[in-house]
């Protein structure tokens, strides 16, 4: 941490950071669990209390710390079965939020793949409207989070996050919510298709398609077993139960968020998610929708009734302590996230704009179509219908 801070000040004694000029790179350390970092200092996480926002029993033990420099950002994505509560500790972060209804306008993709997230193919700050014309209809909710403020991000709300100041620190708690059995089958189908295709060896299949938080591997048999568990549980639903209604028949079999080492994070609170309601009132301020990017100021700039704030996210990394590992990204690199697979396909020329266009279908192009939400939904329906007919 000391080396990181010296690096942001332009000093030379910065250890591994010396390989990356501060003027060309930004750094980001994410998903560092406070209870792990400060295991010998419990006061560091006991003072983080989320009960004021309806999350009874939640404190720093269930929270992660995020540290970044100016320019650090998390690609636009939405979490499939959880919600977030974020406390800004130091510096400012600008959040670009989009409601679930805007999903078609954000061109969802599962590349890079992550169990609990779906990414947008659009770079929301500099969108290619010729390639993604529907994005023009997206309704941006933009808020610059100040130190001491808390942002509640409901489930299925899309968000792109960028650090504004030289050093930003925030604390996040992620709550897994109940997921209906149909959604579990869809997740299982997606995972099986992604792992099957990306496990195949080919010239264009060696890119970083796996999101850094989704470390590890799963065998075909393991994925198939989970798919069968999900289908069986869904088939047991009472007749007439809609997709959006919840069930917890196979909750223990469903993966949750991973920790900093890539291992699945589980706890009593994850297995039995709390019932809660966000206490809108004097401590919470609704963020309103706006289409224009806000000016650089200290005011909350935007949301709807269920997005609120309160006053009170790839390259080299260290293999040592989670406290010192960090992700690096060159500011001018637009392909590092894997969100534009066509432009990043193996063999693509970078000599001119015309030559950089893809002329062949890549593995990622095919995969992006196969795991499109509409396709996965239809495959899930067919699987469940087939299973029902075989009973």
UniProtKB/TrEMBL annotation:
> Polar residues bias located where?
303-324
Keywords of this entry:
Cytoplasm
Q: Where is the composition biased (Basic and acidic residues)?
A: 242-260
According to the record, the residues making up region (Disordered) are 240-277, 290-328
Q: Which residues form the signal peptide?
A: none
GO CC annotation, single: cytoplasm
**Where in the numbering of this chain does the JmjC domain appear?**
30-190
Q: What is its main location?
A: cytoplasm
Fetch the Pfam families from UniProt.
Cupin_8
Q: Where in the cell is it found?
A: Cytoplasm
InterPro entries noted in UniProt: Cupin_8, JmjC_dom
Among PANTHER family, the record links this protein to: HSPB1-ASSOCIATED PROTEIN 1, HYPOXIA-INDUCIBLE FACTOR 1 ALPHA INHIBITOR-RELATED
**Tell me, what does this protein do in biology?**
May play a role in cellular stress response.
Q: What is the protein name given in its UniProt record?
A: JmjC domain-containing protein
